[in-house]
Design goal:
Strand 5 and strand 6 form a beta hairpin. By secondary structure, the protein is of the alpha+beta class. It has four domains: 137 residues, ibrinogen binding protein from staphylococcus aureus fold (Roll), CATH 2.30.310; 119 residues, no CATH class; 150 residues; 118 residues, no CATH class. It has a seven-stranded antiparallel sheet. A five-stranded antiparallel sheet has the order 5-6-7-8-9, covered by helices on one side.
Length: 583
């Protein structure tokens, strides 16, 4: 639900519980618009990250340490002078604004106790970290805002701090049944717009969630809703505001195909249906760390895989064209048997053809049907036969060579298609490293030179591991090399093997440990094989499965490609419901 006022309230509640009473032991400014403050409280050390980055303003508790610059910026030095060694006495959030204030008690140069405020405003491009005294006079800020930049509010040393104008929005935490109905009844626009335009701190996503929980119509104004829907929406809104006042939050992230799409400190119930997956976290900071960490990883992997994807796609297009050309050439060799029969018919009946004949009419002794054999009148019948046999032998040799080439090209095509699917499934750089190594080993990309002594080798990735709802361990190969290893080195003969039929994808191995497979385990293993395949977005996928001992590897076959003649089939939905990822 973005970093709206509700999410800010969730963070403020966590900071209040963890930091109030704690002492500030270290302050660094790793980036020009970012602070990392170390706070010790109740024998625990906390790292508080505050970022006024215009594109990603954040405040949360983190476990990630950062390096301080060689020379501390002026703002950082100012904070060290005034509040390092001070005690956090309060963490507050004005109304439901995207603002958090830390009140800090410290001793000045004369040893007198003084109170200062460190204020972070999470307002997009207007985000800032502002340091004030107890009378709201600005001492300094991480971003100075002169009148030439903003005529509404200067943020400069000596100016009085005040909260930016909120366009006369109402405080949602102070609303009751009557005031909510009164405000919403006169608010312009549909219900969703009326909610986030009328009350401070609400994002469009939060408004959508309230509407969903109330099961109310969103395409009309509040006054146009039936009375039961007005009452339901009012109750949902007031219930959430009461929970926010009481500090009752449900930090959660909604993901689609492992990519995070939404987060919030109230339950995102409107996503409680496939293909979305919603996960609840212990704290708002843990949620934010997971969300932006996953976003960053997803973006980074897409960027790093772009070149590799281009290489594989180009090679696959080239291989498909090569395959089509070879098949076309193979079609032209299909008439080779006709030339052999012509030669045999001339040898058998050529004596009956008059000299200078342009054709030989006889009966094909293979089919007992009449046949007409074209002749070259300038040469003898035996020479005509030799000519046809020569054509036959040439086309035969071509067909034999093409059969091997087509098989090799088909294998290359299938391998590249599997690599492309593996790139889609890659979650980290080590996954891409395995794919790159395979492409290099098989000549699709140029091999790098020998690894220099002391150089760090690229990490090798591991298969995914899942636990089924019945307690079976299920292993999923991420690429062709892992599929090969899973099926022929890790799996036992009595383990079960699953794979999407006729589609590139992962081998799924179910470790039975001597147990009898349950129907649910078969369904969940099939769902895994469907999910980790090129058919992931299909509503249903046909899955082949068999005991591991029925698998064979073709001599000279590509890694991860198997043959089997005894198998079963099932239709599976690409869904991970009931399965637990074990990292």
């Amino acid at each position: 639900m973005a970093f709206d006022g509700i999410t800010t309230a969730g963070i403020a509640a966590q900071l209040r519980e963890a930091l109030v009473g704690g002492g500030i032991s270290r302050i660094i400014q790793p980036e020009k618009d970012e602070l990392l403050i170390t706070i010790k409280n109740r024998k625990t050390q906390y790292l508080l990250l505050m970022s006024a980055n215009a594109s990603l303003p954040l405040i949360y508790l983190t476990d990630t340490k950062k390096e301080a610059p060689m020379t501390a910026p002026n703002f950082c030095m100012l904070l060290r002078k005034h509040i390092q060694g001070g005690q956090i006495t309060a963490v507050t959030q004005p109304s439901l604004e995207r603002i958090i204030e830390l009140e800090i008690l410290h001793r000045d140069e004369l040893g007198d106790l003084k109170t200062k405020k460190l204020i972070i405003e999470l307002m997009g491009k207007y985000s800032n970290i502002i340091f004030t005294d107890d009378e709201d006079q600005i001492i300094d800020s991480i971003k100075r805002v002169p009148s030439s930049v903003s005529s509404v509010r200067e943020v400069l040393p000596g100016r009085t701090y005040f909260i930016p104008e909120t366009q006369a929005k109402a405080d949602p935490l102070a609303a009751d049944d009557a005031s909510f109905r009164r405000i919403m009844s006169v608010a312009p626009g549909d219900v969703v717009k009326a909610l986030y335009n009328s009350f401070t701190g609400l994002s469009p996503a939060a408004a959508e969630e309230f509407l969903y929980e109330a099961e109310a119509e969103g395409r009309c104004g509040f006054a146009e809703l039936p009375e039961n829907e007005q009452a339901a929406l009012t109750e949902v809104f007031l219930t959430h505001m009461r929970q926010i006042r009481e500090g009752l939050f449900t930090p959660n992230i909604v993901s689609l195909e492992d990519d995070p799409v939404e987060f919030g400190v109230i339950a995102c119930k409107m996503y409680d249906h496939p293909p979305y997956v919603r996960r609840v976290y212990a704290s708002a900071s843990e949620m934010i760390t997971a969300y932006y960490g996953a976003k960053e990883r997803s973006t980074r992997i897409r960027q790093k895989s772009a070149d590799l994807r281009h290489i594989v796609s180009t090679a696959l297009d080239r291989t498909n064209k090569k395959f089509q050309l070879q098949e076309k050439q193979m079609q032209s060799t299909e008439k080779r048997d006709k030339y052999r029969i012509y030669g045999e018919m001339i040898n058998a009946f050529g004596y009956s053809a008059p000299e200078g004949s342009t054709e030989l009419k006889c009966t094909n002794y293979y089919t007992d049907e009449p046949i007409t054999v074209p002749l070259d009148p300038s040469i003898s019948p035996s020479e005509n036969a030799q000519k046809y046999f020569a054509r036959y032998n040439k086309l035969k040799r071509t067909a034999e060579a093409l059969t091997e080439q087509i098989e090799e090209t088909r294998n290359d095509r299938d391998q590249l298609a599997a690599c492309l699917t593996a790139i889609d499934l890659a979650e980290n750089e080590s996954d891409l490293s395995d794919i790159r190594r395979e492409l290099s080993d098989f000549g699709f990309i140029q091999k790098k030179g020998p690894v220099k002594k002391g150089a760090r080798r690229e990490a090798k990735s591991s298969p995914y591991m899942y636990r089924s709802s019945d307690g079976f361990t299920m292993l999923v190969g991420k690429n062709n090399y892992q599929n090969e290893e899973l099926s022929f080195k890790i799996a036992d003969g009595n383990d079960w093997w699953f794979h999407a039929k006729g589609a590139p994808g992962s081998h799924v191995i179910v470790k039975t440990g001597g147990r009898e497979m349950t129907d649910r385990a078969y369904e969940e293993a099939g769902a895994l094989a469907a999910y980790y395949s090129s058919e992931r977005k299909a509503p249903k996928v046909e899955i082949d499965y068999t005991l591991r001992r029925n698998l064979r590897k073709k001599n000279g076959g590509k890694p991860g490609f198997v043959i089997y003649h005894t198998n079963y089939s099932l239709m599976a939905k690409p869904d991970l419901t009931g399965l637990t990822r074990v990292d």
